[in-house]
Structure formats: C-alpha cells, structure tokens
Amino acid sequence: MWLRHQTVPANRAKRFFRRLLGAGAYNLWSQSTPEPERTVERGRCYRRMNKILLNLSRLCTGSDEEAMCRVKMRADHQEFARLVRRWEGPIRRLCARMIGDAHRGEDLKQDVFLRVFEKRKDYQPGGRFSTWLWRIALNLCYDELRRRGRCREFLRDDNEPEAEGDLEGCAAETPAPDARAAEFEEGELVRQALLQLPEIYRTVLVLRHYEDMKLAKIAEILEIPEGTVNSRMAEALIRLSRVLEPKVNRKRAQVAERNSMTIPKEIVAL
By C-alpha distance, which of 137, 158, 131 is closest to 65? Predict the structure, then answer.
C-alpha cells in the first residue's frame, strides 16, 4: 500500500513533464532507452525548459513601461539591464542601417541607452517605452548624419582643388564602390542605395521594411500624421528605385561581360 502511494505522484510527475517538454521526455524515465539517446533527449528537455522559464520570467517581470518606471523612480539597474538586453538588437540594427556603418552603429547603440538612463526623469509613464526609445535612437542617428555632413563640407572647403579625390575617398569608406558593384549581392545594393536617400525617406523605409512596423506606429514615433508617413513611403520607394535601377543595370552588364569572356574560343569560332 505504501509503495502504491509513492508511485502515484511519480507517475503524475512523468505525465506532467511529458506534456510540458514533449513526448520524447518519456525516454528520460525509460530504462530500456540506451544512454546516448537519453543524453540527447536530456539536452532537448533542458533547452525546452529554459525557453519556458524565459517566457515565464518575462510574464513575471511585467511590461517595459513598468520596468522603465522603476528605472525612473529608483534608478533600478537590474530593470535597466533587462531593457537593454531586450532592445539592444533592434536599436543596433536601426543605427547601423541609418548610418551605414555597423561599427559606428554599435557605438550609437551604447549612446542610445546611455541617453535613456540620463533622461530617465523625462520619461512619461502614460506613453509607450518603445516609442520613446525609438525617438531617442533616431535623434542620435540624425545628429550623427548631420555631423558627418558638416565634416564632408569642411573637408571640401579646405581641399577645394582635390574635391573630386576627396569624394572618391569618402565613397571608399563605404563597402560599395561602383567598380565592384557587380560582386555585391542585391541586399548590399539596396543598403547602399538606402544611404543615398534623404533622412525623412530613409527613416520610414528602415522602420517599415526592416523593423516591420505599421504605419500608425511610425507616425506615433515621428509625431506626424499617418497620411504623411504613407506619402513619404511612396516617395521613398520611387527615389529608391531611381537609385537602384542604374546600379542593377550596371551589375547585369558586368555579369554578362564576364560570362562572355569565359566562353571557349572554339565556341566563338563556330
């Protein structure tokens, strides 16, 4: 009788973990399962359990707005670290695509979260944390783009006779010179064309097509009407196609020329 009462909770635990971790978890308790298979299944169960615990921790820790309120009121470093872990990937991508430099995008990402902590008292609990964060990131990107623009103008003024050479040097800093356009993939061509658009058009394209935001969310971040976002998106796509078309045609011509050069002489003679 005592043995029966002891085995019932154990069987319930097995059924619970089978439902939680998958049917393969049964192999952990099956004595007939070879040890290598039990080791593999044990690793799978650990990974599933870690994912479940991560989702539970997110539910228990509350929303980003609640975390930012604790950062604002108590300078809670643990909550701030959680926000950084959650948002550092999207902010890094945004900065890199707006600036066109992955290394500088990493630096700007750190500047963004430093600015968030410095300006924590300015956060309004009634608004979304993500909207506030995107605005800070975009403003820093705009500052960086303006600084780069002033730097280029200063270099052209100081070296007026060598202006053409300076422009070539600036183009060489980006990984897309026209001489090697045929070697780049389509994604690289689009990225380089994106950098040639004005800020207002580049912003809506990055937020819509790379960060997969809805037009209403973009309008909220940029603090403009949704109709304005829609018109900017249409104009941005038109300008992007104008920039891309000659590059794509040039790439196709170079590919065709390279293919023609590889044709054997015997075939050409025929």
Answer: 131
Q: Which of 130, 244, 82 is nearest to 176 (CA)?
A: 244
Residues 6+ apart with CB under 8 A from 202: 98, 194, 195, 236
pTM of the model: 0.60
Q: Encoding tokens for residue 98?
A: 């707006």
H-type helices in 120-180, by residue range? 129-158, 163-173
Q: Which residues contact 188 (CB under 8 A, 6 or more apart)?
A: 175, 176
Q: Which residue has the tokens 């025929």?
A: 270
103 half-sphere exposure, CB direction, 13 A CA radius = 3
Write the pLDDT tens digit of every residue in 60-111: 446 999 999 999 999 999 999 999 999 999 999 999 999 988 899 999 999 9
The residue length of the chain stands at 270
Contact 115, 136 (CB under 8 A): yes
Q: Do 236 and 204 contact (CB within 8 A), yes or no?
A: yes
Residue 2 banded pLDDT, cuts 50, 70, 90? very low
Burial class (CB in 10 A: 0-12, 13-18, 19+), 238: exposed
Last residue of a domain, one of 139, 156, 173: 173
Same domain for 194 and 124, yes or no, is: no
Residues 157 and 265 in one domain: no
Residue carrying the six token digits 């976002």: 229
95 within 8 A of 140, measured Cβ to Cβ: yes
Question: What digits encode the pLDDT tens for the residues 199-209?
Answer: 999 999 999 98
**DSSP 3-state assignment of 51?**
helix
